[in-house]
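Risk mitigation, structural track. In case the binding assays with DQA fail to produce interpretable data, a predicted complex structure has been prepared as a fallback.
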Amino acid sequence: MDKRGRVHVWHGPNLQALGTRQPETYGVTTEQAIVDRLRALGGPLGVDIVFLQSNHEGVLLDAIDRARMDGIDAAIINPGAWTHYSYALRDALAMLSCPIVEVHISNVYAREPFRQQSVTAPIAWGVITGLGVLGYELALHAVHARMRERLGGGGGG
Ligand code: DQA
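Fallback model:
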């Protein structure tokens, strides 16, 4: 890409505890390690990562709205439990005109019935679920490929 891209990565509730939270389900990688990995990957791709985690829905809604006003290139979101019931989050995401990838560390379709519905997935470009923290890296590659198509230019991996 000719200019550096900006990808926002958003984490919903309880994801700050990754690393120690139900490691049998979510693994042992910490949230910080995920962000560090995305930044390391993003550098040579020409992508800057802006990260936010919150346990407060309004904080995330405000951040999404600010990102909309600023004009971002792509978003990667693991909405945590809000995935399954937050119409407010869905509405906020629906206002973005950039590609959105929804990521779940666990395979939500192999878990409790309430996790098998995502109210946010229908407005996402794509969804990655069950591939562990690798899902974030795959999401970054996907949005980067899409950004290259949209913004044009060579280089940047
Ligand atoms: C999750 C799955 C959700 O059902 C759960 O509430 C989470 C994490 C995942 O990454 O697998 O907090 O989004």
